[in-house]
Predict the structure.
Amino acid sequence: MNATERTIYGILGQAFLLLLLYGAAAFFTAVKFLPADPLALGVPYKHVAAFSDVLLQLAVINGLLAGGVYAVTYNTSLQLTLVSPQKAALLWAYRALTTLNILAVLASFLGIFEGRYLLSLPPLLDVLLIITLILFFIAMLTEGGMEAFKLVWLTGLVSLTVGVALGILPAIDYQQDRVLRSLSLGLQVNIGYTLMALVLLFWLLAREADLQNMAVSALYTAATFMVISGALLTIAPLYTFGASTALSTIAFLFVPLSILVFIGRVFRVLLDDSYLKVTAPIRWCILVVGLYSIGWGILGALSLLPGVRQWTVGTWLDSLQYQLTVFAAVAAVLGMGAYISAKRTIKVIQTRGWFSFWMVALGLLGWALSLGGAGLVQTYSERILSIGYLDVQKLLVPLYIGWIIALLMLMVGVMWYVWRFRSEHSLESS
């Protein structure tokens, strides 16, 4: 294993560690919604919720960076194409990312947050994150490997960087703060995460189906439609400020159409290879498609209608689309990790890895059903029947218990996955 591969493994390892820490923090967050919270006084909800948000954000960014560097720096012969100056830039980027991870975890543990929903990193750490992302951009900019994947991945990286930068701009009033926050989250998650995850997805399809040209064409088509949809979803929270009904109607029709195009392009690549076997990376790719179909094709499309959004804003339905989009990126990273692990140990994983996959998939399904059901109950009870918040929370307890069970299933799958990844990496290194 050379230095670049060790760097990729190091970033992936940090991503998986952050994901495990997120699971613990998310569990304590979910417990806060139960009537008998044993940590009601010791661990405030705002603290643990912001902590889990920071951990998940960093886990996704680490994973997308590692997977993207792996995809971009390998040519058709699966040989590293980085030259010495690029290796040095990548090493400095890795050091900056490691420093950021350590400082962010320490700051979050101590309760040092920005105090804004889903934008919890302190401004100084946001600046360090921007510097880190720029270093990765410089390291990969002149890379001469797979140009199509590099172009889309770098575009996603730029969107992510700009989104983080917008998040630290000061606002003069509540309305401007809402606009900046919406644009920041949208550029990071709906466009940045999505483009970088699409690169991992179609790169895996190109490798597993051995249809690189078709996968590249599918990537360009899917990325174009998904970027437009991501932009429409980004401005959805701003529709209450007077966006036209015509625009919202067009957006409502276009987003599901883009998901259908995305699904069609993915399965066009899969079905064109009659000898394709459902390996572990392919399973994760299919999960990515499923999460985007629910998160964007259903919840995202509904959020684009002002007549619907005025009832769902502030409920669990309002945040579920964001969560599913983030976990779609997580699934893409897990698929990339499965491929890297199989390649390094000279194995083709076909039947192995089913337990971790199904635990994660069923956990996410239970998560979506529980919080989606909670959002529907909130919408009907609070917004239509005008039942009080505390009374509605009592009605949601069974759904919160389902959420906790789903979260435990998800994290059991992730822990099993990480253990297998680590054991195979140790076996390959020995």
In short: The chain has 14 helices and no strands. Residues 3-429 form a domain with the Cytochrome C Oxidase; Chain A fold (CATH 1.20.210.10). The chain has one domain: 3-429. The longest helix spans residues 174-209.
